[in-house]
Amino acid sequence: LLPHTTRRVRGRRGLRYSPLYTRGMTLLQHRNFSARLRSGLFAFIFAPVALVFLGSSMVDVQALASVGQPLASVEGLIGMALASMLIALIALNCEESSAGMVVTFVWSLVVGAAQFLGVARLPLLMKSSVGAEDMFAGVLWCLYPVCLSLMLGACALTIKSVRVRAGKDTRMPLARVHRHAFGTTVALPASVAAGVLMVAAAPSDSTNVAAMGLEGVLEGHTLMPLLALGAGLAFALLVVSARWSITGTQIATWTILVLPSYVVLPVWASLTGNVIVPGPSIITKFALASPPLAALGMATGCASMGVLWARVRALKNLDASQDALANEGPAEG
Fold first, then answer.
1. Rounded-to-integer distance, Cα 277 and Cα 87, Å
2. What number is the average pLDDT over the span 5-16?
């Protein structure tokens, strides 16, 4: 061979990469950085808006439900839906990088701390007159900020995991053979557990609400943080199940959590008159647990869509890189 002639050799070590191949690696790194920047910046701007709007709307609906008006806050019901749509957009922007969901998780810690202080609320977009004490009471008994942060953190880890392990066999032996069935088997019990634990942690007596506002639900109520924390872990497990079956996660989230708490129970209570009344009642538990279950369920269903998009994009990129390696190889000088 002539000194300046190059030939392609596959599978050998110590080969010098051609300038074009090196430049391609640089472009790939630039693309990854651009994806992280786009995803992170979008979440940095819109995540606090979505999180504050979602929590504020949830407490607004809960405040009116505590006085026997579960459907009175149109602003709160629409606000939860709009905030969840923003979370869905953030999740869809995580198809090439989990940076957006990581930023959302960090924002959830900041917004959650502000909600526990009673300051992260939007009075102009709330039907009821919710003060700082009411906001604190509405998120304390259910540990709403903690549950939301657990779910978002699990979602960020799951998105990262499906990108890293794209094309590889799952570590779960049963999921290798029956992937969708395994994911659904995880999602359904997790959603049921989240609902049961949240209802069990809810106050049962609203006698003092008329005089004290929403903070009156805490009078005489023994907080059950372990039950509320268990509900948060169930929501986290629910979003993790999306790595095996997004269908199972979506069905469990919307049919078991969102539809009953957001539509069925409030409408049934309003039509039949079985609303919250003074005195201990199991209806009070269901009515007070419905708003946080609806908010967390909608956020979980929307955030889990990012897992699907991340897995699809990672598999496409893997196929594209394998095709490129099959057609080209490094050059030997």
1. 35
2. 46
